[in-house]
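Re: zinc ion structure - here you go.
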Amino acid sequence: MARVEDIGQQDNWRCWLCDDSVDPAMSVNDDRGPSVDARMTDRKAKKKGKGKSKGSTDLHERLAHRGCNTGKGNIEAVVIWNEQLFTIDPVAIIPTVDRLAAKGGREIFCRCPTAADADTTAAWLIDRISRLEPGLTLSSDIQEGGGQYLVALRA
Ligand SMILES: [Zn+2]
């Protein structure tokens, strides 16, 4: 249990996948109970300056609900977009954030029908990613084009 306690404190007892709180007192056999999930990133590839290559992935341990844990069924980790947001063509959040963390620069996350939707969406993304990838500082970069608003983030 010591390991779950450590990872739980590191992640403030919040599930890295669904962003809900995890009860440390709940049984580890319960689907809402705590578990340690493995998260792979390509971060080390950049340090070597060689881009993606085999064996260059970085393994992080993150807190997840037992039911959300991707290790059990080898399901690919997916961060769910907030259903309240009006987004068009939203990208897969985890690989996009991994690219930002590894290479920096600017990544497009979605388009929005109005400027207000774009602002709300960018604020949600920055808040969500601050827990998904602590240590990555992002700023929003919203551009109007073709009657829509392109929501991008810059590392
Ligand atoms: Zn969860």
